[in-house]
Amino acid sequence: MVGRVADAVVLSDEERPGRPRTVSDEQVAEVIERTLNTTPKDATHWSIRSMAAATGLSHTTIRRIWNAFGLQPHRSETFKLSTDPLFVDKVQHIVGLHLSPPNRAIVLRVDEKSQIKALDREQPALPLSADCFAIACRQCIAPGVAERRTHTYIRHGITSLFAALDIATGAVTGKCYKRHRATEFLDVLKKIDRHVPAGPDVHIVMDNYATHKTSRVKAWLARRPHWHVHFTPTSASRINQVERWFTELTRKQLQRGLHRSTVELEADIVAFIEVHNENPTPYKWVKSADKTLASVKRFCQRTQQTLCGKL
Questions:
Q1: 268 vs 272: CA distance, rounded Å
Q2: What's the pTM?
Q3: CATH C-level class of 87-289
Q4: DSSP secondary structure string, 88-124?
Q5: Which of 286, 112, 275 is nearest to 206 (CA)?
Q6: Of all helices (H) and strands (E), which one includes residue 33?
Q7: Domain map of the chain by residue range?
Q8: pLDDT category, 271, cuts 50, 70, 90?
Q9: What is the pLDDT of residues 182-235, one digit of tens each?
């Protein structure tokens, strides 16, 4: 409608056609309050249909309300905060080693991936062949069908991988051992000592595992004053970037690999390291120590507010 009031044009909107609103603000508030502060009698969290049954609304309405307010009661995550009294100092020191490494120095991230299992499936998926479509083999890989294998497996032993990641080049030095002791760790340190060039200082970042702190290891390091050891905070080994490389090894080689002996397993690990070192790429550290500590502080504050609100 167009009208003139005091020589001014006023525009107003007519009522639009359509179904009137059937869910009130009070009902929406009730759904949100129940989702956040209550649980059903027979479960630890609400589902869309259990909330719909409790409130008398349709499950599509509950879905729209949850999506609008970002509610996801089905999701659950775990966390662990470090109890290291020197947590702040260690984070600043280790992050600083990566963002501003010392001049004429080599910085290595050292850790071990222990208890790697050599697993063989009872019936692995067969490779796709030209005859598969003719015989309609259900175990073969076909377009649109995920690779299949039996859930049960046969274990053929375990091995442990000790690895050192050079943060400047991204190259990895690693070796597999049958056992996981200070003797094997000391052998890895000797291997690193043979490969690093003479002259520059060597900075090693590793966790607080007891294997790294035996008297033999301490004595060996004491005889090499150009070696400097930096320990990660307790319960914060993920700050060690070699853990990121272990994740890549697991995802690309170990998770879907089939190994009928530890010899095959170790050969695949060595081959993976060799291929990686043909074109190594260093990992980029994107967060400063201050940003990392600030995010931990925000999480602690939110956790404290949540716990205090429930008490």
A1: 6
A2: 0.74
A3: alpha beta
A4: HHHHHHHHHHHHSPPTTEEEEEEEEEEEEEEEEESSP
A5: 112
A6: helix 25-37
A7: 21-76, 87-289
A8: very high
A9: 888 888 888 888 888 887 888 888 888 888 888 888 898 899 888 888 888 888
